[in-house]
Design brief:
- The chain has about 475 residues and is of the alpha/beta class.
- About 40% of the residues lie in helices and about 20% in strands.
- The chain has helices at about 50-70, 110-115, 120-125, 135-140, 145-150, 155-165, 170-175, 190-195, 220-225, 240-245, 275-280, 305-315, 320-330, 350-360, 370-395, 415-425, 435-445, 455-465, and strands spanning about 5-10, 15-25, 25-35, 40-45, 45-50, 70-80, 85, 150-155, 170, 180, 185-190, 205, 210-215, 230-235, 255-260, 265-270, 285, 295-300, 400-405, 425-430, 470.
- The strands form six sheets. Strands 17-18-16-15-19-20-21 form a seven-stranded mixed β-sheet, with helices on both faces. A six-stranded mixed β-sheet has the order 3-2-1-6-14-13, with helices on both faces.
- It starts with a strand and ends with a strand.
């Protein structure tokens, strides 16, 4: 690719990638220049992200991006939510960030709820209960040396933005996953933080998608070969916020499924839904691009498949997923179905054994083959997707006439057909790289390569990106 381009740094919970995008009024082209795994590291004190290795991979990817472009205009960073890093007063990292699957937050949940009830917390923040939300992680960190020395908390994409540019900000779509953002004012809830002995001074100033932070810092330019003209631009830094921008929706009311390690299922709204029914259904109201609300619920997602494959690989009997999917698709319907959101499936470990145990506990037949276990996972996910789409429509009052599935799950034809059946609605699958596309589109608009609202951005996606159509059978 040649010409003036933008680079999207897109970090998922199992892999990361750096993509180069070219955007013009009738053109949207995306090229992957670097992809790398993102694996957790188990240390004696808990489960962590290897953030320094991730940053090194980002620099390698941006070096490749700079070589591919005749003048890299901008860089934007997105990642998963809730996790954070602590920095001292000199901006020095105080240890590798904890992984949200670490179990240290279990003891913190009652400590938070002793101060503020779950109902009051939902009314203030609009965020679904997940035991690894940032609010519980920070309470779990109280009393540690790192917490005592900390002068700043940055979410993961904000940390990379700081290392690349030298500027400390908190982008609002990712901040909204923390459980510490006032859903009404889109501002840090300092009163809530103070009540939990979390210094509100830890919070960086909030900024929004499309804000141009400034040029890359000297070290980042040296490491990547980017020029002084390359700017750091904020995008929807929560990967789901960018993925929803990348949904090629038209005028028909739609629901989305952003399907990767996690599946995020919901609708796009203008205002939050804070009813008791919404709280009890564990729906969240997170920030989206252009001040939209991402009204959604988390479902465990393809983590169940990924961890099963890893378990078999560690045991020395690896499997190839394409062959398993073919065999799973040949099995008859009506097999066992589990609850994919059972907390037993959250930590790493022997996933097939836990799924078999869940089948026995539910008095269902245990899958008698690995293909049967994969089919059980996909049937269970599709059933959960169908329930969640219906709940999102019912609780929000928004009609849904079509479902869009984006992300890695859009490649899985069996999952897509099962989901169309479970939703009893037409399903459009793709693009797979919706998150990177949404990242690129927001950057391009910020720099004048495009104009218009989300409908305009999505119309370009419909013109340029391939989708597959599935109808309920």
């Amino acid at each position: 690719m040649t010409g003036r381009l933008v680079a999207a740094v897109d970090l998922g919970a199992s892999s990361g990638r750096v993509m180069v995008g070219r955007v013009a009024p009738n053109e949207l082209e995306l090229t992957e220049v670097h992809r790398f795994p993102n694996d957790a590291v188990q240390l004696p004190d808990g489960l962590h992200w290897d953030i320094l290795r991730l940053y090194r991979e980002v620099l390698i990817g941006l070096r490749d991006a700079a070589r591919a472009a005749d003048g890299l205009v901008s860089v934007g960073v997105d990642s998963w939510g809730v996790d954070y890093a602590l920095l001292d007063d000199a901006g020095v990292l105080l240890g590798d960030p904890y992984h949200y699957r670490d179990d240290r937050t279990e003891a913190a949940v009652p400590l938070v709820h002793d101060v503020i009830s779950p109902a009051d917390l939902y009314a203030r923040t609009g965020v679904q209960f997940l035991r690894f939300n940032t609010i519980y992680q920070l309470v779990a960190a109280r009393g540690t040396g790192a917490f005592g020395a900390a002068r700043r908390m940055l979410m993961i994409p904000d940390l990379l933005t700081f290392w690349l540019s030298g500027v400390q900000v908190s982008e609002v779509t990712n901040a909204s996953t923390s459980g510490l953002l006032d859903v009404h004012r889109r501002a840090w809830d300092t009163e809530l933080a103070d009540s939990l002995t979390i210094p509100s001074s830890l919070f960086a100033p909030l900024a929004a998608p499309g804000d141009v932070i400034g040029p890359l810092g000297d070290v980042a330019r040296h490491e990547t070969g980017a020029g002084t003209e390359t700017l750091l631009t904020l995008v929807g830094s929560h990967d789901t916020a960018s993925a929803i921008v990348g949904v090629p929706a038209g005028d028909v009311p739609f629901a989305y499924i952003a399907c990767g390690t996690w599946s995020l299922i919901g609708v796009e709204l203008e205002r939050a839904v804070l009813t008791e029914a919404s709280r009890l259904a564990n729906f969240t109201n997170e920030g989206g691009v252009d001040d939209r609300i991402r009204y959604l619920r988390n479902v465990m997602g393809l983590w169940l498949v990924q961890e099963s494959l890893r378990t078999w690989e560690v045991a020395g009997t690896p499997e190839q997923l394409p062959a398993l999917l073919i065999a799973a698709g040949e099995l008859p319907a009506g097999g066992p179905v589990i609850d994919p959101d059972d907390p037993a499936f959250l930590p790493p470990g022997d996933m097939p054994a836990r799924i078999e145990a869940a089948c026995l506990q539910a008095d269902q037949r245990v899958p008698d083959s690995r293909a049967g276990l994969i089919r059980c996972i996909l049937d269970s996910l599709a059933a959960a997707y169908g329930r969640t789409v219906r709940d999102a429509a019912r609780l929000s009052g928004q009609d849904v006439e079509v479902v869009h599935i984006v992300g890695g799950g859009a490649r899985n034809a069996l999952l897509c057909q099962l989901t169309a059946d479970a939703c009893a609605l037409p399903l459009l699958a793709g693009p797979v790289e919706a998150t990177a596309l949404g990242n690129v589109l927001v950057q391009a608009r910020a720099h004048g390569h495009l104009t218009g609202d989300l409908q305009t951005l999505r119309s370009l996606l419909r013109e340029t990106q391939e989708v597959r159509h599935y109808r309920p059978s």
